[in-house]
């Protein structure tokens, strides 16, 4: 199976172009103001306008009012919507776009039941559970909690880096991987720069996945 790569939490045109040139299949734009990787509509429009053909654009929302999502869609030509909150299946399906439902995985969560509930989703995005944080934590979860025969494609997120992505794919066999903090730039004090990507880290991660594709 050819594993797809999504680079999420992009805030700069140059980083989005670098991701596309390096072979990312999709890029993610965060429309959730509390996130340090959030973009404005103006930023998102500039990024999408600069992308070459055949790169899927994904907009991430967290329990947003329907009017907010509609306003973004009226200004930014997103291909896919990604919902990271407690949205119902009916809510997710109302915008006329393919959509992914993110689930934060922890022991006791019945992923098979969730897949049935969100059966109209294009995919399930499985992320780590951290109380009070809807995503982008940089934490990984126990990949063995993923049932082997979910009826929807799985996009794996949560703590993925160039160093562990091959192990993650071998363990979880996802349709795709979604990486944000694991490919971010590092400042002079060794701290991540949320929303700013490292071209070298993106290249390393995509190369690892590409080697699995061959």
TrEMBL record:
Keywords: Amino-acid biosynthesis, Aromatic amino acid biosynthesis, Isomerase, Tryptophan biosynthesis. It comes from the Bacteria. It is an enzyme of class 5 (isomerase). Pathway: Amino-acid biosynthesis; L-tryptophan biosynthesis; L-tryptophan from chorismate: step 3/5. Residues 5-185 form the N-(5'phosphoribosyl) anthranilate isomerase (PRAI) domain. Pfam families: PRAI. Its EC number is 5.3.1.24. GO terms for molecular function: phosphoribosylanthranilate isomerase activity. It catalyses: N-(5-phospho-beta-D-ribosyl)anthranilate = 1-(2-carboxyphenylamino)-1-deoxy-D-ribulose 5-phosphate. CDD domains: PRAI. SUPFAM superfamilies: Ribulose-phoshate binding barrel (SSF51366). The keyword Isomerase applies. Belongs to the TrpF family. This is N-(5'-phosphoribosyl)anthranilate isomerase.
